[in-house]
Amino acid sequence: MRRISIFGATGSIGQNTLDLIARDPESYHVVALTGGKNVAQLAKDARKFGAELAVTADPALLPELRARLAGSSVEAAAGPEAIIEAASRQADWVMSAIVGAAGLAPGLRALEMGATLALANKESMVCAGPLVLHTAQTHGGRVLPVDSEHSAVFQALIGEEMSRVERVIITASGGAFRDWPIEKLAEATPEQAATHPNWDMGQRITIDSASMFNKALEVIETKEFFDLNPAKIEVVVHPESMIHALVGFCDGALMAHLGPPDMRHAIGFALNHPQRGALPVERLDLVKLSQLTFRPACETRWPALRLAREVMAAGGLSGAVFNAAKEQALDDFIGNRIGFQDMAGLVEQTLERLSAESAVTSAEITLDNVLAADHLARRTARELMLQYH
Ligand code: NAD
Ligand code: MG
After folding, report:
1. Does ligand 1 have an atom closer than 6 angstroms to the CB of 41?
2. ipTM value of the model?
3. 270 lies in a domain?
């Protein structure tokens, strides 16, 4: 039986992971499940899967979690420290699916314990890619990508040499506003941005898809994960979301990964790795699909993509600043304090303001300085936001 833990179990990725586990319960022992405010779901799943431990991020919800787990053998705990503690419990396979920079510390702890970390939390790679990979290497852990594009690249690279890779193309659906005229974007509301044409995901990542901040994070994640020269990474808009990524080799061959937009593919690939296991995902009918289309990823429409290139060129803690400023800008957009188009401007200004503070080498990136940069960037973005009123 494999010992597994899921961080962010109540979210979209967490629930999809549990869906796969539920189909083969004899193969898994669930060690820890963690969640945020939805303690009803957390307690229900902890009971159903016989978890050793359930942790909510919010200490105020501990009494409720305890009450919901009464009479079961599941231990209850709460707070960010308790989440990191949960990662200290030995597990073979750990799903990192907390949203935001809060996912970094538990993921690092799981790697220190030598676990295989299935990484949905792209923010970990954006904020601290070199630290995550170094931690895995030092402690005999392993990181497997769960973001669909990165899982696709990983699969296209099996048996290949990185020195033969000419380019990596990741696709973007274009999000809710891909067909809107640019002039209309300033009026876009959070409700409109939170509807995704193809994928069913959490609210934040769905809005990040419309602004392309999600793709910007993924471009940085690609660089960090596969140690690629940024010049080799391309983004193309592919409205059907059937091809997730392509890898181009020195002989001109382009290997594409196709599949329906269902995160259980990438999650299941990481769960079954190094084997392939049967997965309950729809099989593509190419004739029915009939055509796949592509458009350029315009940096005027989506300035987040330009910012990603600047972040990769700057390196150091600029990824952490970028991510934190983006999270703050997203909060401000969701809270109707800034417009949809203001998010990129606010992030850019924050990056400029903190360029000196971000200048460290890759080897100098630590959990502490990432969290400090995250904190400073949120504060700076909040101050800069006032000018948008
Ligand atoms: P979600 O919002 O649906 O779920 C997030 C989970 O994290 C929930 O369990 C929530 O309770 C928990 N959480 C939120 N804030 C927390 C905090 N401060 N401390 C501890 N726990 C907290 O998000 P999601 O869509 O499942 O995405 C999770 C991660 O996976 C993100 O990093 C996202 O970018 C990435 N991802 C998601 C998808 C997708 O299809 N949903 C695809 C690729 C990558
Ligand atoms: Mg993705």
Report:
1. no
2. 0.99
3. no
Same structural domain, 93 and 155: no
Domain final residue, candidates 103, 123, 145:
145
- List helix spans (H) across 169-261: 190-193, 203-211, 213-226
Beta bridge partners of 6: 33, 95
| Helical spans, DSSP H, in 227-283 | 264-272
254 and 158 housed in the same domain: yes
113 and 180 co-located in one domain: no
CA-nearest residue, atom 23 of ligand 1: 202
- The protein residue with its alpha carbon nearest to ligand 1, atom 25, reads 202
Q: Which domain holds residue 44?
A: 2-145
With a 6 A CB cut-off, is 261 part of the ligand 1 pocket? no
Please tell me whether 38 is known to bind a ligand.
Answer: yes
Encode the chain (389 residues) as per-residue pLDDT tens digits: 999 999 999 999 999 999 999 999 999 999 999 999 999 999 999 999 999 999 999 999 999 999 999 999 999 999 999 999 999 999 999 999 999 999 999 999 999 999 999 999 999 999 999 999 999 999 999 999 999 999 999 999 999 999 999 999 999 999 999 999 999 999 999 999 999 888 888 889 999 999 999 999 999 999 999 999 999 999 999 999 999 999 999 999 999 999 999 999 999 999 999 999 999 999 999 999 999 999 999 999 999 999 999 999 999 999 999 999 999 999 999 999 999 999 999 999 999 999 999 999 999 999 999 999 999 999 999 999 999 87
Measured in angstroms, how far is the CA atom of residue 178 from the centroid of ligand 1?
24
Beta partners for residue 145, in sequence order: 119
**Ligand closest in space to the Cα of 150:** 2
Q: Is 218 annotated as a binding residue?
A: yes
Let me know: does 311 contact 319? Beta carbons within 8 Å. Answer: yes
Locus of tokens 């995704």: 196
Spatial distance between the Cα atoms of 273 and 144, rounded to a whole number of angstroms: 9
